[in-house]
Amino acid sequence: MTKAKVIAKGNKDQIEAEYIKLRIQSILDEFVLEDFLKEIEENNFKNEQEIKKMIEKEKNNSEDENVESFDGRVATVWLLFICIIALFFALSLT
Q1: Are 20 and 7 in contact (CB under 8 A)?
Q2: What does the angle CA 56 – CA 61 – CA 67 come to, to the nearest 5 degrees?
Q3: What distance lies between CA 10 and its chain's CA centroid?
Q4: Phi, then psi, of 79 in degrees rounded to 5
Q5: If we measure between CA atoms, which residue out of 47, 86, 14 comes closest to residue 1?
Q6: Average pLDDT along the chain
Q7: 8 Å CB contact between 1 and 19
Q8: Alpha-carbon distances of 21 from 26, 43, 47, rounded to whole Å
Q9: What is the model's pLDDT at position 65?
Q10: How far is residue 32's CA from residue 25's CA, in Å, rounded to a whole number?
């Protein structure tokens, strides 16, 4: 009410009108602020979801790389094992 008195310069007829204007502006500002905060929360949620997806994708990629390198090592061991068997077989024929 004090701000309305200052704006109305003490005019009693204008004080109430100025108070109503200021109150309406305050309510509008609250709505704008609420919308702004809601938008920030939505953006934060979207960013969190994107980060989670990126982390999950990175996990899957690293797991795929581990599986591929493991498959390569297993194949090498099997090839070595087959070569040893073939060598023993060849030596037993001589």
Answers
A1: no
A2: 125
A3: 54
A4: -65, -45
A5: 14
A6: 81
A7: yes
A8: 9, 33, 39
A9: 59
A10: 10
Concatenated DSSP letters of 9-73: TT-HHHHHHHHHHHHHHHHHHHHHHHHHHHHHHHHHHHHHHHHHHHHHHHHHHHHHHHHHHHHHH
Structure tokens at 85: 């068997």
Residue indicated by tokens 């994708």: 57
Q: What is the mean pLDDT of residues 78-89?
A: 88
Rounded Cα gap, residues 26 and 89, in angstroms? 93
Q: Is 81 helix (H, G, I), strand (E, B) or coil?
A: helix
- The token duo for 23 is 């109150």
22-33, pLDDT tens digit by residue?
A: 889 988 888 888
Is pLDDT of 9 > 70?
yes
